[in-house]
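The instructor's notes for this session suggest beginning with a concrete chain rather than abstract definitions. Hand out the sequence below and ask the class to guess, before any prediction is shown, which regions might be ordered.
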Amino acid sequence: MTSALRRNTRSFDRSEEGLRPVTFTPAYLKGVLGSCLVEFGDTRVLCAATIDETVPGWRKGSNAGWVTAEYAMLPASTPQRTRRETRGQQGRTHEIQRLIGRSLRAVVNLSALGETTVTLDCDVIQADGGTRTAAICGAWVALHDALAAWRRAGKLKSDPLFDQVAAVSVGMVDGRLLLDLDYREDSRAEIDMNLVMNGSGEFIELQGTGERTTFGRGRLDALLDIGQAGIAQLLEAQRQAVKSQGEA
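After discussion, reveal the predicted structure:
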C-alpha cells in the first residue's frame, strides 16, 4: 500500500462523511440517577449525572436550578500518560467543561428544575479524538435518565428537558472535508471545527479554526452541511438509547 493510500484511508473504513461506530450504553453505573458510556470508535467517555437539592450561592432565591459539568481525562486514556490535574485544572479542561454545561443548559428549562443543581461528570477513559463532542452526546443521555428518575421520585412537576443536544467534529485534512475526526486526522487538520446542535436543527455553538489555512464561506457551508447530517444520526442514536431504558 502506498503512503498516499494510507493517508486516504480512514479508521473503520468509513467514507469522508461517515461517523465512527457510535454506541451509547445507558445506566452504565449503579447508584447514580443517570449514566452513560459513550463510544465514538476508540474514544470512550463515561458520563454520570447527579442531582443536589441546592444551588450555588449566587443562584439562591431565584426559584431556578442550574446544570453544570466537569470534565477530565484519566491518566491512561492516552498512549503517553496524562497527568492528573491535582494542582488546578488547565485551561483546556475549563474550556471543555464550560462548553458541555452551556450545551446542556440550552435544552433545559431551569425554572422547571426548581433550586436544584444537576452535575454532569464526564471522564475520558480512552481518547482518540473528539472527546468533547462525545462527552456532550453522552452527557445528554445521562441527563435525560437522571431527570426521568427525579420525576418518578416526585421531585419534579414537569419535565425540564425540552430538546436533545448532540455534537460532532468536522474538518479538512489533506484537502478533504471529513466528519468526526479521530486523533490522527485532528492532529494534522488544516481546518478544525466542533458543532453543537439541538434536536430542532438549530446551532447551539460553533467552534472553528483555520489551523493551517484560511477558508471561505463556501467551504464553511460545506462543513456545516456535513456536520448537520452527522448530528442527525447521533440524535437518532440517542433516541434509541433512551428508548431502550423504557422512555422515548
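Then share the key points. The chain has six helices and nine strands. Confidence is low (pLDDT under 50) at residues 1-6.
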